[in-house]
Amino acid sequence: MLRAPLMFISLMTMYMSIATFLVIGLSSIFKNSLITNTFAQKVNTSITYPEVNASITTPYPKAFEETYADSILDFIVLGDWGFNRKGTGEKHGDQVHVAFAMDSWAKRYNTNFIINVGDSFYKNSKSDHQGVESVDDPKWKTNWIDVYKGKLSEMPWYSVAGNHDWYNNVTAQVDYYWSKNNRFFLPSLFYVRISVFGPEKTKVAWLHIDTNIFYYKYEDLTNKNLLKSNLQNFDVHTSKAIESKLKWIEENLALQKDAKWIFVVGHHPLIGDCVKYQHMSRLLSLFEMYRVTAYFAGHSHVLEYQYPKPSSPVAIFTSGAGSRSSSGCPGKDWGMPVGTLGFLHVKIESNSDEMSFEFVDATTYKAKVVFQGKVNSTSIWYPKAK
């Protein structure tokens, strides 16, 4: 039996296959809908969302909730995976090697879901394009559905957008969730999830954020790709817009003090030699203030584990080696050698104050664990909520 989370679709979609919720262009609309579980298992209560007229950069107005009966929450963190180019004489590209290992791990540990930290679709050839152009782009099938098979095709991919996703029609990735396949979970570029699992009803809070507006200095961007123009079109390049998003992040972190675990998911790293700090340092300050357990990111094509400083409660994980590898940004704590491909595997037991993690080297079909560790929960740093 699948350990499936609450996935959300409208009753219209459930009962009338011809009806879908479309999020169109720059004027995406969150419809007034009754949200239920597509997998029809371990259903909590349905959630009715208010109607909100907004672009995809508007944070989703309510937290998504999911429940798991089992006492272990298991997930894989994967980033920068959409590069499916094969070398001369190779039957499969690097992306397939990683996908094969992920499926093996998912079956072995009964993994619940994938945390997708972005850069989901790269330009794979001279005739190809960055990102996706629409919800019907062939790359949805060739770079995602046809690659991540088996157990990986049965679970949700909780996603954020990377810079390569912004280089084309980032709206199409949100549209795809609403109108095509909500297993690619991206209802907005900013959203909150609550996972409750085990007999203890252990609470895990997740903030999924778009870091493209915080990482780059807009004035320094060139017009060689669509990132600069897209940021301008969505009006998220201004100081006012950035402050608004920082306020939303702080407000939603403050709401999660009763969570045993608080995780933030973004695309860009917070620390390391490659960070274009801009407003990323302000994010780190917020995470430390509200005792975030861990921040998961990609962008640098490495596997890396760091702490900003010894006294910081925030563990920083970079898992950006899903299909490409590079020298990246060496960290002071631990990082894989150049050229390594792979992913991060995380396991949390409901009655434990520690989460276990391991980095998996999947450069070849003989995948192996290359680093293991444990991280203390948010409850270690916060007094228990009354």
UniProtKB/TrEMBL annotation:
Key word Signal present: yes
A Pfam family per the record: Metallophos
Keyword Hydrolase: yes
Keywords annotated in UniProt: Hydrolase, Signal
InterPro entries assigned to the protein according to its UniProt record, in alphabetical order: Calcineurin-like_PHP (IPR004843), Metallo-depent_PP-like (IPR029052), Metallophosphoesterase_PAP (IPR051558)
GO MF entries: hydrolase activity
Gene3D superfamilies membership: 3.60.21.10
SUPFAM superfamilies: Metallo-dependent phosphatases
Top-level lineage group: Eukaryota
Domain Calcineurin-like phosphoesterase: from-to ranges: 75-302
UniProt name for this protein: Metallo-dependent phosphatase-like protein
Organism: Gigaspora rosea
